[in-house]
Amino acid sequence: QVQLVESGGGLVQAGGSLRLSCAASGRTFSNYAMGWFRQAPGKEREFVAAITRSGGITYYPDSVKGRFTISRDNAKNTVYLHMDSLKPEDTAVYYCAAKSGSNFYIRTYDYPYWGQGTQVTVSS
C-alpha cells in the first residue's frame, strides 16, 4: 500500500501561482510513477501531469502545458505540481496518484493509489 497526502492548495487570483505537494509513505517511492489529476464540480476527473519514477520524463495535456510543472524528490518521497499563470478554469480539487511501473501514465484507471485531494480556487 502507498499512502498519499496532498497539500498546498488554496485561493489565488488569476495569473498567480501555487505549488502543490504530495507526500508518499508505505512503499519505496522511487518504484512508483506519479500523476496529478483534477476534478471540478460536475465534471469528470481529468489528467494534469505525469512523471516517471526516476523523474526523467514528464507529460502534460495541452490545457496546462507551459503553465504547470511536475517534479519529484525521491529522497523526500514527495512529488510536486508547480502551477503558474493560473486561470479560473483551473479551479478544482487536485489529486495525486501513484502506480508501480517504469513508464508514465495518464488515465485515472492506471493508478491504484490516490490521495484525498486538495482544493485549488482561482478567482477572476
Describe the structure.
This protein has 124 residues and is mainly β. Helices cover 0% and strands 50% of the residues. The strands form two sheets. Strands 2, 4, 5, 6, 9, 10 and 11 form a seven-stranded mixed β-sheet that branches. A hairpin with a 6-residue loop joins β4 and β5. The chain is globular, with a radius of gyration of 13 Å. 35% of the residues are buried. The mean pLDDT is 97.
Keywords:
four-stranded antiparallel sheet, 11 strands, 50% strand, seven-stranded mixed sheet, 124 residues, globular, mainly beta, 0% helix
Task: Summarize the helices and strands and which ones pair or pack.
Layout (H helix, E strand, L loop, with lengths): L2 E5 L2 E4 L4 E8 L6 E8 L6 E6 L6 E2 L8 E6 L4 E6 L8 E9 L12 E2 L3 E6 L1
Parallel strand pairs: 2-11
Antiparallel strand pairs: 1-3, 3-8, 4-5, 4-9, 5-6, 7-8, 9-10, 9-11
Q: Cα-atom Rg, whole angstroms?
A: 13 Å
Q: In terms of per-residue confidence, which ranges show pLDDT below 50 for 5 or more consecutive residues?
A: none
Average residue pLDDT: 97
From the N-terminal CA to the C-terminal CA, the straight-line distance is 40 Å
Q: What's the SSE pattern?
A: EEEEEEEEEEE
Q: Tell me, briefly, the overall form.
A: globular
Question: What is the percent of helical residues?
Answer: under 10%
Find the structural class using helix and strand composition: mainly beta
Largest sheet: 7 strands, mixed
The fraction of residues in strands falls at over 45%
What is the β-strand count?
11
By DSSP (H or I, 4+ residues per run), the number of helices equals 0
